[in-house]
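[09:14] KT: can someone run the structure on this one? pasting the chain below
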Amino acid sequence: MTAYTHQRRLLTVQEVAARTGQSIDTIRRKIRTGEIPAVQLGGKGFPIRVDAEELDAWMYEESA
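[09:31] RB: done, structure tokens below
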């Protein structure tokens, strides 16, 4: 039996900024306000990542 595992592609804030054409500061603000869904790896001071599929969904909603 083969188990299917879905691996999430997590993007850095810099990668999100490049994909959206927005500044890093704007992306950080949108993450802080909850507009862009993100996770923090660990606790305070650890890296923030955005799931690529969730970002694509957010970008689609923004363009609609």
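[09:33] KT: thanks! The chain has a mean pLDDT of 89.
[09:34] RB: yep, looked fine to me
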